[in-house]
Amino acid sequence: MISEPDRAPSETRDPACDEPPVVLLVEDDGLLLMEASDTLAEAGFTVLEAPHADRALQVLESRPDIEILMTDVDMPLGSMNGFALARLVSRRWPRIPVLVVSGMGSPGPHDMPPGARFIPKPYAPSALVLTLHAAVRRAA
């Protein structure tokens, strides 16, 4: 996990701010987690990692600087899958945009919270980076 010293809580991102956007990446597959984390770090994000939804919630509760959540759907560890995590984050932290990724097919009609984005796996790293940057800009 890449970590920076705790920053002062901020409810909204200042577009003029030089701080890199903070993304919480939730992925149970170690190799995919490492690849996505490296891609996002190279694209200028500060990446926080969680191997399952329960750990992601702990990170969200302790880090008010998280600006976007990216979660896989199928995570055998933990108490919920990525869709449930996406819906919970959307309710508890409505300012945080959500990106859901999965190689298991497309989401059903009630799987995703309003405003969440979906990218099927495998995804192109450039598409991932563009989608996350666009979501951060829209939320600013």
TrEMBL record:
Pfam families: Response_reg (PF00072). Keywords: Phosphoprotein. InterPro entries: Bact_response_regulator, CheY-like_superfamily, Sig_transdc_resp-reg_receiver. Residues 22-136 form the Response regulatory domain. The modification 4-aspartylphosphate is found at residue 72. This is Regulator of RpoS.
